[in-house]
Every structure is written in C-alpha cells, then in structure tokens.
Design brief:
Length: 451
C-alpha cells in the first residue's frame, strides 16, 4: 500500500514527539530502528519479515552485551515499522553495536538504527571515526547519491526487494538447517534407546558410535540448507518436481556423509526424510512452519505415487535391497510409505507423545524415550524386520502398544531392559530413530520463535 508524502511527514513528527517523550521520562540513550525503504510503499509482508529479523539481531546484540532495555516498543503501520529501545548505556557504545549490524548483517544496509543521546542529539558515525554509509546501488557516499538523486526510485526499490528477499531466504535456510542438525544430535543423545547408538553404548552396532553420528550430522548441515532452497526455487512448480531435485541432492549428501564417517552409513534414512521436510519448508511460507500437519502434507504431495514408481515391475530376481525384498514378501513400504502418507506415525504418535511428556515435566531426553517407543508401536521398522524378521517386529509393536496403553511414559528400567535384550539379539530400530529425529524437528519448528 502506497503512502503519501503528508502521511510520511505526519509519521515522522509523531516519531520525533514519541522520542522526546521517552528521553524526558528516562533521561537515557535511545535507539530508534526503522527500515530504510525507498519509494512510496513502506509496508508489506516482506518488509515486516525484514524488520522482525532486524529486531531479532538487535535484541541479540543487546543481550550479548548484557543490556536490558529500560523500555521497548514496536509498531508497524502503513508508513513503516519502528522499534524504540531506551538503554542505560553510553550512546557511543550503543552506536558501535548498531553500526556493526548495519554494516555486517546481510540486509544491514536496509536497517536505519539511529542512536539518540539523552539531550536529544543524534550520534553519527563520525563520532566513532567512521565514514558515512554507502549507496545501496553504487557503493559511493549515500548522502551524495541521495542529494543528487543519482539513482531512480525504481532501481533503488528493485535492489531493496532483491536484498530483502535473499537475506530472508538465507535466514530461513540457516534456521531450518540448524534445527535439522539439532534434531539429529538430540536423537542420538537420547538415552537409553533399545539397540541404538546413544550416550551409554553403541547398541547393536559395532561399526559406529556416538561421535560417528555427530560427525555425520555436522556434514549434513549444507545439505539441509540446500533442500530448503530447492523447495523455495520450485515453489511454483508441481511438488513432484521439488522431490526429483531433492533426490539428486540427497545422493550427493550421502557422499558427504560417508566421507565424514569413513564409509559408515549413519544417516541415509534421515537424508531422505529430513531432506524431504526441509524441501517442504522451502515450499511453504515461514508462518506455516509451525504447523506440522501442513509440513507433512507438503511431504505427502511431493512423494505422491512414490511407492508405485519405485517398486513397479519389481520381482524376486530384480529385488536388490532389503526394502525391495520386504515389499515383495510382506507388502511393507517402509519410509516411502510413511512419506507418501505424510508420516502418520510422527504426526499421530511421536509428536503427541513427545509434547505430552514435556507438558508433564519430563526432560527432552525422557520425552524422546517416550516418543521412540510410541513410534516403534506405530510404524513398521524395516531395520527390525531385516534383523529379526516380520513376525518379531509385529510382536514387539503389539507388546509395546499394550504396555504403552497402561503406562505411556516408560521408566528408564524398562528401556535398559529392552536395550540389553535388543543387543543380545542384534536388533536395531534404526528406521524409528529417523522418525524420532523428525519428531524433534517438527517440535522445534513449532516452538522456534519466528523472527
């Protein structure tokens, strides 16, 4: 929505009056943060995202410096967004922090963070021995270009829009990749987990340990960020196209995983499932990330028809993998079936159990243990089938269903007992572990504040 010159002037006067009122009331330094947006359009969803990201960065800087504002307020109107902070701190020290953000943040050139002394005078960059700000277009002195109107408003707006868009995309990719890696690290840290690598032992695995999983998770950070970008780049295309590109990226990620682990397959299943979720995040607007049903619905849309495509024409003679053989012998669809159905085990069993456990005061570790067993009862774990057979996997799932109906939050003693039994029989619910990581990721997405 475009605003008139009079509306902008009125807003500027109201802002100045508000600043003076706060200075009189507190007698302390003041930060006034606005967005430097050229042209008559000062408010849009994209501009507000950029503003919120700037607020998050600024408040992070203040917190890191141990500064608690005496007063703060935020407003967003058609004339633009504004945040005010009153701080009991040296105006020069505050200016140094704001200049750092304006110069170093990806869209810092669009941040306008004025620092006002208690007497009402602004602190300029020259007070810190710095030169003025540079032009968004040519890199020359901004004041010179502004006075001479060296660049058309249309060119300035196009550059502003591109800067905002790219900075927000990078922020979203970083957030998603961080949370995906955090989910993988939380999953391996949950202890005790029957037959799985955790902080206590290696479970039924002689070729990997706790540190192998950490190395693998670290190696996958760029892949998860790439999956978000693939989703965003293909948002206007059919969801199947997103999935096709994710699969290609996943193959390259497997190479990086194996390089990081010395050839050990730690996260092949997670590369598929979590890469799929990250691709779904890229296809969705940021406010929808906190709605797991919509995220998983996007996963289902991307993998529609996957089982038919991957298993079409399969015969006992052509089946090469354990998953293919299980499909022919038992009709088990594994992670493909979970994905095509929108990961129902996660949505209806894992995530609700995790949240219930946390709501009753359980730690993230114990809540993860409860979610793991709920997932084992709800999903057909192809790793268990491969190691112990279909009949045993069903028996374990049925037994857990009965026990969890009476005691949904297992005691550590039961988990240790199961762990010992699984290790004796060389059983490992590795597929369920991947679903647990997915459960943590969706929980983080629900609870992560949106910048």
């Amino acid at each position: 929505m475009e605003v008139t010159l009079m509306e902008l002037l009125d807003a500027r006067e109201r802002r100045a009056a508000r600043q003076q009122a706060l200075l009189r009331r507190y007698g302390a330094a003041l930060i006034c943060f606005t967005m430097n947006i050229p042209g008559p359009e000062k408010d849009s969803p994209l501009i507000r995202r950029g503003f919120r990201l700037g607020v998050s960065l600024l408040e992070g800087q203040l917190a890191a410096a141990g500064l608690t504002p005496l007063y703060r307020e935020q407003t967003c109107e058609n004339t633009g967004c504004e945040a005010l902070y009153v701080l009991n701190c040296s105006p020069l020290a505050i200016k140094a922090m704001t200049v750092e953000l304006e110069d170093a943040a990806p869209m810092g050139r669009l941040f306008d963070m004025d620092v006002i002394r208690p007497d009402g005078r602004k602190v300029d960059r020259q007070a810190l021995g710095l030169e003025g700000r540079t032009c968004l277009i040519c890199g020359g002195p901004a004041q010179v270009c502004a006075r001479s109107r060296a660049h058309p408003v249309e060119q300035l707006w196009e550059k502003t829009w591109a800067t905002l868009t790219e900075a927000i995309r990078e922020a979203d990719e970083t957030t998603a990749a961080r949370l995906a890696c955090q989910a993988l690290l939380y999953e391996v840290a949950v202890t005790p987990k029957p037959g799985l690598v955790d902080r206590a032992n290696n479970g039924s695995h002689s070729d990997m340990d706790f540190f192998t999983f950490q190395a693998s998770a670290a190696a996958l950070w760029p892949y998860f960020a790439r999956c978000v970008r693939i989703g965003a780049d293909t948002r206007a295309l059919p969801p199947e196209e997103t999935f096709a590109r994710l699969r290609t990226a996943g193959k390259l990620a497997e190479v990086e995983m194996l390089r990081a682990t010395g050839g050990i397959n730690t996260h092949k299943g997670a590369i598929f499932s979590m890469g799929l979720v990250c691709g779904a995040l890229g296809r969705l607007e940021r406010p929808l990330w906190s709605r797991p049903e919509l995220v998983l619905e996007a996963c289902a849309a991307m993998t529609r028809g996957l089982i038919a495509r991957d298993f079409s024409g399969l015969t006992p003679e052509t089946a090469m993998t354990a998953g293919q053989r299980q499909y022919l012998q038992y009709g088990v669809t594994g992670v493909r079936g979970q994905a095509e159905a929108g990961f129902p085990a996660v949505l209806t069993a894992g995530l609700p159990r995790l949240e219930e456990a946390l709501a009753r005061g359980s730690s993230l570790n114990d809540a993860g243990c409860a979610a793991l067993l709920a997932l084992m009862a709800a999903a057909e774990d192809t790793n268990l089938i491969r190691r112990g057979g279909r009949a045993l996997q069903r028996r374990i799932a049925d037994t857990l269903t009965d026990r969890l109906r009476e005691a949904p939050f297992p005691e550590a003693a039961l988990l240790r007992e199961m762990d010992a039994a699984f290790i004796r029989r060389n059983l490992s619910p590795g597929g369920t572990a991947d679903l647990l990581a997915l459960t943590y990721l969706l929980y983080f997405l629900k609870t992560e504040p949106e910048p």
